[in-house]
Specification:
single chain; 1066 residues; five-stranded mixed β-sheet; four-stranded antiparallel β-sheet
């Protein structure tokens, strides 16, 4: 809570101090703790400094994970003894001392780079501090042994699983749910024995051959529906290949001794008979069992289907389509490309593979050998003979020059075709291999199927099997429930779809479809962790954590909630994540490991928005039309404090809400409404007029009256009750400027008394809040998003940081704009300053009553208050769909983070709008992938390093500060002050000051407070004395009086309780 954060400011949040002050304090406090300060520096060059800092951050994470992975029983026993020796709980200082000794020596995140002793010490200390924050997730300032064990059990298993998978995300093939392939071979006991699909073919069709059939069918790759049947051959088909640009034609061969050429629409171009022109023997005809197009040398190779002679492989040199059209009969093969002089195959060739980068051709035969031919020098280079049975499959991996071969053996050999050596054997199949195919666009993935239907997905880079599954239900086949598959061919239709054919056809899909997007599923929220410099995106019911410095995915917390995550926010302190799902469930989980911390009272329907504030959590369900205020003081449970019904005031569907930092919630609606609610009472306090109802239909703002004595106490305090009284003075008549379309989003200013709301017509209205006119129109901006003839609906809004002088707006058409609002903000601040000055100079009554606004001009529908502002920058089509979220990353160099309906998360320069990168999911299983966008997260490395060192210093110095305070209290004995806002119990009075009865002392204190005398109260901190008279609106101190004290009931338990600052008007 905030009181704990106030006692430990370094753990909750920490501003960036000057470098000199940081160094001085670090050295001083480090000496007190006997810890050698790390004199860590970075290169002066910003680029080199950023690179080194990123390397250090990676080393910190590696050291953190290495420690958790290497924990064993012996080390846990030693740590348990240390916890017991210190009473079971360790504060941050003691935790750092103990764990720094047991952390492994950090390694270097980047190769060919060394790490100095100071860097290693810094990495260890940061890793220890990270561990402490992960364990002390409730921010109590102490980590217990049970908290440590629970965290280790939760995260260690997650890390081990990720290490075994080599990736946080897995994309497995599964049976296609929306594709039915009812087709069966025409002949009895026949099979679909060949399937071809060429991604570059203009027709985008899958070609399927059937045993015994002279024609073939074209199928649509998405639905597998048949397009049409192609006739041309007289007997069954044997092989096919595609000649890309500039030919764009398909070649087929059949058992009828024909080779047919088809245009891009599968119209017959030419038909050749393989007669004596091809065979070289008078009167002899044959058929081509295998076809292979060698694009780099423009040669079409064909292997004789029946011949077992070495001269069975020949080639035509085809330079253009005119050569094909010019020859009505078979063209004579090019003898310079013939392999008769070099081949030593003794059985028919079953597969030919062209290796373009090597300018080599590989042939596989039933004689169990693979032979490689160099077509530049026209000689055979290697004979590969490590198989025991005949070969039917060859595939080439150009990325790392691997040749895969398989056949009637139950294994696949991987060869180095340049050296002619066996590199590795892929084992796992239990019978002969029916087919091998490469997965498009992956470079390293290959898939194989055997005759029993077992399918295996291979990563030939890592030489492992990524997935193994059966293409059919064998038990159902045995029971006769389904027809036997008997696979004969496998073919990829895309990177994420394959088809396996036999006596029937089956299709398998996998989820990952586009490596360039952040996810293949809709992303409903995004959050930025300022402490960890990480980005969190929910995908289905998982949490994906990305490194903001590199744009790489770090980890995935699986199944953190049952339903699909629709709302997400990071808790105060950046140690918890609150997630809401489409079924209304709301959970708080540990940011570091995704472990469940507590359950919040669920909504009846989908959770739309979650906002964390000190000691409370606000949740919104748009379908339920309810805002719920949850208590967040207890780390294990969360009671419901208020349920705010927003169905009546909104008049339609609520679109979102914003919190003002005190007690007011502003909500927006599709019915053009802006309504303010008091969080403490759960009631509406004001409503802006809207176009449909006008001022007459808008009820006057109302406010629940506080208790009489509380109001009197506020008056005696001289408190700022402007918000209460000005409602009466100015709430009944609002300005005429209203929203004319659905209000889509809103945002409160932190440093200015303003609320910004945006609508579906591209307009932003600023509303004034106390001490200005309460909930009244202040300014309106009509934003420019490009084409003036189009209507742009604002779908996301954010304020710049730290000055709040710019707004970032995204629209449903995907455009992103930045507009300078410095003039509006400065006017609001100047007006606030003037009002507070006049209040302090003797016009308090006018300010409190609201009469001061009578002499001030009231904003209205005039060019002075309704204007169009030029964009600082505009990015058209920043996303391919609507921009759903805008987050400003609060760093030394701010960054604009956007989430679009296109499932992409992107970052932009806050100054120029330059695209700085997209979070890209890449290829499945961590396969090598070249990013489409260059990720450039702006960073001031020196500032970040100083900030980290200050975190370490304050965490290490905390024990010394607490010990000094306890020693001072024990020795002085006469200290009896009650620090304002401190939750600790006051010490007992000393003998020098005789104790006063609780009732009399409380009554005296209460009476003193009511008459404005603050002498009975003191504050332990001289830097922040209690402001009881003339307190500003931002630091109002409410006094909650026990009724027994005021009414004179004489209860001994009566006492004066001082709580954190809140608005006395509410």
């Amino acid at each position: 809570g905030p009181r704990e954060a106030a006692r430990r400011p370094g753990l909750a949040r920490c501003p960036s101090p000057p470098a000199e002050a940081t160094t001085m304090n670090s050295t001083l406090l480090a000496k007190r703790l006997s810890i050698r300060p790390s004199k860590l520096t970075l290169p002066s060059d910003p680029v080199l400094a950023a690179q080194e800092y990123i390397s250090l951050r990676q080393s910190i994470r590696d050291a953190f994970e290495s420690f958790l992975r290497n924990l064993n029983l012996q080390s846990l026993h030693k740590l348990e003894q240390e916890f017991e020796r210190h009473g079971g709980d360790l504060n941050s200082s003691t935790f750092l001392k103990i764990f720094e000794k047991v952390f492994p020596e950090p390694g270097v995140a980047q190769p060919n780079r060394s790490m100095s002793a100071n860097q290693k010490r810094f990495v260890q200390q940061m890793a220890c501090l990270t561990l402490f924050e992960c364990v002390d997730v409730d921010q109590s300032g102490e980590a217990s042994w049970m908290e440590f064990v629970e965290f280790v059990c939760a995260i260690a298993e997650e890390l081990r699983m990720q290490a075994a998978e080599e990736s946080g995300q897995t994309f497995d093939f599964h049976p296609a749910e929306q594709v039915a392939v009812p087709f069966r071979p025409a002949g009895p006991k026949c099979l679909f024995d060949k399937v071809f699909f060429w991604p570059d073919h203009p027709s985008e069709s899958a070609v399927i051959f059937e045993e015994g059939q002279p024609g073939f069918h074209l199928h649509r790759p998405k639905t597998l529906a048949r397009k049409r049947r192609i006739e041309g051959h007289h007997q069954e088909l044997l092989s096919a290949t595609f000649l890309p640009e500039p030919f764009r034609c398909t070649v087929t061969s059949g058992n009828d001794n024909l080779v047919c050429f088809w245009d891009e629409n599968f119209n017959m171009i030419r038909k050749w008979t393989l007669d004596q022109t091809w065979t070289g023997e008078k009167g002899k005809v044959t058929c081509a069992g295998v076809l292979c197009w060698c694009h780099e040398i423009q040669a079409l190779y064909a292997a004789d289907h029946f011949s077992e002679k070495p001269d069975g492989v020949r080639a035509w040199r085809i330079r253009d389509m005119d050569m094909i059209r010019a020859h009505e009969v078979c063209m004579e093969p090019d003898k310079r490309l013939g392999l008769a002089k070099h081949s030593t195959h003794t059985r028919a060739v079953q597969a030919i593979c062209w290796m373009g980068p090597l300018k080599c051709l590989a042939t596989a035969s039933l004689d169990t050998t693979v032979q490689i031919f160099d077509l530049v020098e026209m000689k055979r280079t290697y004979v590969l003979s490590q198989h025991k049975r005949g070969l039917t499959c060859l595939q080439y991996c150009p990325k790392n020059h691997m040749l895969l071969s398989g056949g009637f053996d139950n294994y696949i050999n991987i060869w180095d075709p340049g050296a002619g050596t066996l590199s590795f054997t892929l084992e796992g199949h239990e019978c002969s291999i029916a087919g091998i195919c490469p997965i498009p666009d992956t470079d390293y993935e290959f898939m194989s199927v055997d005759f029993e239907g077992q399918v295996r997905l291979w990563d030939v880079r890592r030489l492992v099997c990524l997935q193994s599954f059966c293409a059919t239900d064998r038990q159902a086949e045995k029971n006769g429930e389904i027809e036997a598959l008997e696979p004969r061919a496998i073919c990829p239709l895309s990177r994420d779809r394959i088809i396996i054919s036999g006596r029937r056809m089956v299709v398998f899909d996998r989820e990952a479809s586009d490596p360039r997007v952040t996810a293949d599923w809709p992303i409903h929220a995004v959050a930025f962790n300022e402490r960890r410099i990480e980005i969190v995106t929910p995908i289905k019911n998982d949490l994906y954590v990305w490194c903001a410095l590199t744009g790489q995915m770090r980890t995935v917390h699986d199944n953190v909630i049952e339903g699909t995550i629709t709302a997400l926010t990071i808790g105060l302190g950046c140690r918890r994540v609150f997630v809401g799902a489409d079924d209304g469930e709301i959970l708080a989980v540990n940011y570091a490991c995704g472990a469940l911390l507590k359950k919040l009272t669920p909504h009846a329907y989908e959770v739309t928005q979650i906002t964390c504030i000190p000691e409370k959590v606000l949740t919104l369900s748009v379908p339920e039309k309810v805002i719920v205020v949850h208590d967040d003081n207890d780390p294990d449970r969360a009671a419901v404090l208020k349920r705010i019904d927003v169905s009546g005031p909104m008049g339609g569907s609520i679109t979102g809400f914003a919190f003002d930092g005190r007690d007011i919630i502003a909500g927006t609606s599709e019915e053009q409404a802006v309504v303010w609610y008091n969080m403490a009472f759960g009631k509406e306090v004001a409503r802006a007029p809207h176009a449909r109802g006008g001022d007459d239909d808008a009820p006057a703002p109302t406010l629940q009256r506080p208790p009489r004595r509380l109001k009197e106490a506020a008056a005696n305090f001289g408190d700022d009750t402007t918000e209460l009284s000005s409602l009466k003075a100015s709430g009944s008549s609002h300005g005429e400027v209203v929203h004319n379309a659905a209000v889509t989003c809103c945002a409160y200013f932190k440093d200015a008394p303003l609320l910004a709301t945006a609508d579906a017509e591209g307009s932003v209205i600023f509303w004034s809040v106390p001490p200005l006119r309460t909930y009244s129109f202040f300014n309106k901006l009509d934003l420019n998003f490009g084409d003036p003839s189009l209507t742009f609906s604002i779908s996301a809004l954010a304020l710049s940081w730290p000055d709040e002088e710019f707004i970032y707006a995204g629209v449903e058409r995907g455009n992103l704009a930045c507009v300078c609002i410095r003039h509006v903000v400065d006017n609001a601040k100047a007006l606030r300053t003037d009002i507070l000055r006049r209040k302090e100079s003797g016009e308090a009554a006018e300010v409190i009553s609201g009469r001061i606004f009578d002499a001030m001009p009231k904003p209205c529908d005039s060019p002075e208050y309704v204007m169009q502002m030029d964009n600082v920058w505009l990015v058209e089509k920043a996303h391919r769909g609507s921009i759903d979220r805008i987050v400003v990353c609060r760093r030394k160099l701010p960054v604009v983070l956007t989430l679009g309906s296109d499932a992409c998360v992107r970052i932009w320069s806050h100054e120029t709008g330059e695209a700085l990168g997209t979070l890209e999911q890449g290829l499945p299983e961590g396969l090598s992938y070249e990013r489409e966008t260059n990720w450039r997260f702006p960073m001031e490395a020196h500032e970040e390093l100083q900030r980290d060192m200050l975190f370490i210093t304050e965490a290490a110095a905390e024990k010394e500060e607490s010990e000094d305070e306890s020693d001072s209290e024990n020795t002085s004995g006469s200290r009896s002050e009650v620090p304002l806002g401190d939750s600790r119990q006051p010490p007992q009075p000393s003998a020098a000051a005789p104790p006063v009865p609780a009732s009399s002392s409380t009554s005296a204190a209460a009476a003193a407070v009511l008459r404005g005398d603050s002498s009975h109260l003191s504050c332990s901190s001289s830097s922040s004395p209690p402001r009881l008279r003339g307190v500003g609106v931002d630091t109002v101190v409410p006094v909650l009086l026990d009724p027994g004290c005021v009414e004179g009931s004489g209860r001994a338990s009566s006492r004066l309780a001082l709580t954190e600052p809140k608005s006395i008007a509410h």
